[in-house]
Amino acid sequence: MTSRADRRAFVRFLAASPLLAPLALSGCADDDGDESLAAALDRMGTYGEPDQELGEVIESADRALDVFDMRVTAQRTLPPAHYGYIATGVDGDVTLRANRTAFDGWQIRPHRLVGVDKVSTATTVLGVEMETPIIISPTGSQRAFHADGELATARAAKAQKHTMMLSTVSTTSVEDVAAAREAPIWYQLYPTSRWDITERLLARAEGAGCPVVVLTVDLPVSSNRLSLTRFIKRDRRDCTQCHAGGKDAYGGGNTTFARKPMFDGITMADADFNTPALTWSFVDRLRAATRMKVVVKGILTGEDAQRCIDHGASGIVVSNHGGRAEESGRGTIESLPEVVRAVRGRVPVILDSGIRRGTDVFKALALGADAVGIGRPYLWGLGAFGQPGVEKVLQILRAELRTTMALAGTRSIAEIGPSSVVRG
Ligand SMILES: Cc1cc2nc3c(=O)[nH]c(=O)nc-3n(C[C@H](O)[C@H](O)[C@H](O)COP(=O)(O)O)c2cc1C
Question: Which of 82, 146, 162, 321 is catalytic?
């Protein structure tokens, strides 16, 4: 059996290896550590991502070959705790991995000699004309990844003409992000334990011109983000300047409200971010309280899709929060067919969680999604290079989708259908 000293020596050898140089991070091979080799290697960068998707460190955004080059570059650039906040799944990260591997369970059926000299990715979702079905999913705390935070993302979305959803726990206000995007953005809503806070957020989102409110329903309680905890443990910085409670106060509980401009001027002392008592009646209440279209995010079953429609939702996001909510072990692409069957075209269906390549977008559209959302890929671009990084990620995914469509003999989004894929 290998001794602990041998294991540490081996990890140090690997860390020094030019092969793994792109993954090397300070503190990843602790001399005083007490961890298994597998855990140490995981710390070096393979959390949640299959090995073939590791990417390479790049010097500038334009050098990225795929979104994974952004991932490893962001890991190099960001402090471990902040990168860990992006990377983490829950428990053993099984669902996080399933979001990727489940796409391999579907294969593309190309049609030949179609005449693909003109390919259009244009589509319309919820009355919004889009040049691409790739939407920016909401993610919180973007200034933890780049000083320009949500403004960089909004400017990239504008430059590349993508629809953007803004998180409740953004580090930039909805007014400023809408101004930077120079077009309507969709507002993502986390309910809190106090309805007056919801009313205030809705009023600000409406005032900023948001046509859609995206209600996220997959986190009634805090989820168990173990990989985040492991990344935080190896972050050597003093975090108390930004996180009042230090390292114990990352990414959860009421610290979520701290330094979040949408909560400025609201007394949060008795407010709770967790809302375990929430039921479907909240959707009714929300609909009655706003002019915005209500979309429900976090739906994974046909039964719940039907309930969304029963409660008047205008759209559904099939999402498991990027593997950050329950550890179901099921990739979202596996949930999509039952949701699409239940919805029967009555409202648009958007899928997110695990989209990393144009082929993933294509498969989701073939299985009935009207659009897809991306989370981590644009955050990697943001963390690595700010706005140019986000722009490059959007360009890559759009170009990959267009190439996939042409090679599969599909000239428009409408032509991508059930005959475009087969179960592998
Ligand atoms: C760092 C991070 C922060 C997130 N913050 C939010 C949020 O504030 N609200 C929300 O509805 N979803 C949030 N999500 C989930 C995303 O909207 C989206 O569902 C998920 O990232 C899609 O999976 P992907 O990262 O594999 O593309 C977050 C995801 C990440 C990675």
Answer: 321
